[in-house]
Amino acid sequence: MSKTKQELMTEVLQNVGSLAAGQAPSAEDADLVNGRIDTVLANLNGRGILGLGDTNSFDNAVFDLLAIIVAQWVGPAFGAPRDMTVILNAEYDLKVIGRPEGVSDLLRTDPVLRAGSRPWGWGWLG
């Protein structure tokens, strides 16, 4: 199931406390958030964190994380502080969600290259 850009905008406005449940957003608030959604999506795509083919429809797996990120970026316009830690954690989670199955966080190295694997040392290194 996917959610729309309108639903994302509503969720962001609720996250920053500008919109109560069941209320309709003002035109100014909607324009501000919609503009920021486009900017954030372009930024995430440009940095390789999240690539979306359709920017008007969002998978449920990424919807909440996108709402958190956009809410943090528009928060100061609504009197809420911006927390970069929250943004970075949500971006990391987006990377993990978008990662192909079987890919780990760390690259593995050949055991021969690891420190302490040579009983005779590195020769000239000590």
Describe how the helices and strands are arranged.
Blueprint (H helix, E strand, L loop, with lengths): L1 E3 H11 L11 H20 L10 E3 H15 L9 H15 L28
Antiparallel strand pairs: 1-2
Helix pairs in contact: 1-2, 1-3, 2-3, 3-4
Architecture overview:
- This protein is mainly alpha-helical.
- It has one domain.
- Helix content is 48%, strand content 5%.
- It is built from four helices and two strands; from the N terminus they run βααβαα.
- The chain has helices spanning 5-15, 27-46, 60-74, 84-98; strands spanning 2-4, 57-59.
- The protein has a two-stranded antiparallel ribbon.
- Helix 1 crosses helix 3 (60-74), helix 2 crosses helix 3 (60-74) and helix 3 packs antiparallel against helix 4 (84-98).
- It is elongated, with a radius of gyration of 21 Å.
- The model has no long low-confidence stretch (mean pLDDT 82).
